[in-house]
Amino acid sequence: MTHVVVSACVDKKYQECVAVCPVECFHEADTYLVIDPDECIDCGACIPECPVEAIFADTDVPDEEEEWIERNEVEAPDLPVAMGDSPVLADD
Q: What domains lie within the chain, and their CATH numbers?
């Protein structure tokens, strides 16, 4: 099992999840984050930190968000590792 970032992160890109992750599994696209399933150690530390509830265990991803399982797996290896220092995009 691994964790997955879903569409609720798009145009938000909060970084709290990156700060608590004990490994470098978060990768950064222009407007959202994804998780590399090969790096994720399934600790779950990121789930309660996400203010928009965009992180799920891959077995708990809502049906309407299932495309994000593959997106995380395919996109993460080609994106830079998120360091937690990028600006948040949300208008909060």
A: 3-78 (3.30.70.20)
* Nearest residue to 36 via CA among 53, 58, 12, 9: 58
> What are the residues facing 3 on neighbouring strands?
57
Does the pTM surpass 0.85? The reply is yes
**What tokens does 92 get?**
């909060």
Nearest Cα neighbor of 39 from 27, 55, 56 is 27
CB atoms within 10 A of CB 1: 10
63-83 confidence digits (pLDDT tens): 999 999 999 999 999 999 999
66 Cβ contact partners less than 8 Å away, ≥ 6 residues apart: none
- What letter would DSSP give residue 55? E
